[in-house]
Amino acid sequence: MSIHTEKVAKKVTLTTIARMKGVEPITMVTAYDALFAKLFDGQVDMILVGDSLNMSFFGKDDTLSATMDQMIYHTQAVCNGATLPLIVLDMPFGSYTNEIDAVKNATRAYQETNAQAVKVEGGKERANIVRALSQNSIAVLGHIGLMPQFVRSDGGYKVRGKNEEDIQSLIEDAKALEEAGAFAIVVEGVKSEAGKAITDAVSIPTIGIGAGVDCDGQVLVWSDMFGFFEAFKPKFVKQYFNGATVIKENLEQFTSEVKNKAFPSDEFTY
Ligand code: KIV
Known about the structure:
By secondary structure, the chain is of the alpha/beta class. It is built from eleven helices and eight strands. The radius of gyration is 20 Å and the shape is globular. Residues 30, 48, 50-52, 90, 186, 188, 209, 219, 221 line the site of 3-methyl-2-oxobutanoic acid.
């Protein structure tokens, strides 16, 4: 039986998400502002205010310079636009390097926004952070596999889970996060066999992005899935809309009408 059918009719809680594992795939998209959050409201189970906004909205080459202030501002906007999905604030690089900073910054996230959870990147080496947050009543979404905040230290974006040893290491990461109290885990950029093995190994939901169809849910970055972000397109991104082309074509028409004095016509004039 479906927990909710096509549209999400009620506020999604951590309990809803926990119950969906093995029952119904979880949908999550990113949002960065109230305008789009409102469009996504009632359509998806979860919204992630991802630090990917530092690239798609702020124009940086990676996510590393996103700040806590930036994440709070955008999460406030998303919470103003959407009321039904479970909203997650992505903790930016450097905001959870130790337990004290993690709790201090995540407490700010709870006090200054209506986010229901925060997300942190890292496996077993960050289990202490996830535990500290959970023990301080802050719900945590883990993030393992390809972790964008490690792009500089890893020397690029690298697909994980290509051999048995790495799959085992990813399973250990997932189990450590579950044991530390994470309510779900984003699994990014891993071979589909690894996505399945991780999903089978834990009793909390996995939400895949480039991790195959066997994860308990799927997440995409909205500006990628709707074709607005043109800098690059990872293999796992399905473009459901050609946003950049549509915007450019329509702006061309606006420009031409303004230059030719066709706009504003009588219809648009007082
Ligand atoms: O920042 C983000 O948008 C993310 C997704 C890639 C899951 O972390």
